[in-house]
Request: fold
Amino acid sequence: MLKKIMLVIATVVLLMGVGGAGRSDQGRIPWKDPSPIASTEAEQKILDVLADMYLNQRRGMMNVQPEDGRVLRLLTEAVGAKHVVEIGTSNGYSGIWFCLALRTTGGKLTTHEFDARRASLARENFKRAGVSHIVTLVEGDAHKTVTRLKEPIDILFLDADKAGYIDYLNKLLPLVRPGGLILAHNTTNVRRGMEDYIKAVTTNPALETKFIHKHDQGIGVTLKKR
Ligand SMILES: C[S@@+](CC[C@H](N)C(=O)[O-])C[C@H]1O[C@@H](n2cnc3c(N)ncnc32)[C@H](O)[C@@H]1O
Reply:
């Protein structure tokens, strides 16, 4: 399983390195990441909602880039995640990418947001994507509300206050199952206050971390070793 996960991560890194760049260096064949192809109507409906959100709602929502959303989906499905915990819902954009995978794995998403307006928008978006039944949206300051979590976590996604990543990690690492992942957004241009988190995930021998950096956001992928 460990090997399988590392293979998936290596493939993602490779794809992000050469795909979509449209470069025509000598000896390289230029190509672009293909768009996701829906295999069912329900999947197409979710992809349409995501496309609409990206086109019409993203202003002020601080959403992940679609290519990062696709990585979140891919990793979630690859580890067969049953429980994803997200810190920083915003309007639900990254949450819906997770749900694309969780529909298949039979899992659920618990997502945290303290801004009432964004939380309300997220509820609407989860509803129109048809995924509300697998989402629990917890409103309030996540530094406090995460202490109510008791169930094992397969994927922890950090995308709220950057200086708070270390606190979320300290509080939730015990719940992440061995073989589970901690994904941290915005690790390309490390923001003030994230240094403690970066140090924690790169110096703990119980963890294995690889940063996927293609554009100005990036994802830190950390495996909790078995
Ligand atoms: C970068 S946005 C999340 C984007 C979202 N993951 C996406 O890609 O669609 C960060 C969100 O975290 C929320 N947030 C920041 N600090 C928080 C806290 N302490 N508790 C709960 N939510 C918080 C903000 O209100 C904001 O909506």
Summary: The pocket of S-adenosylmethionine is lined by residues 62-64, 88, 90, 93-94, 112-115, 118, 141-143, 159-161, 164 (CB under 6 Å).
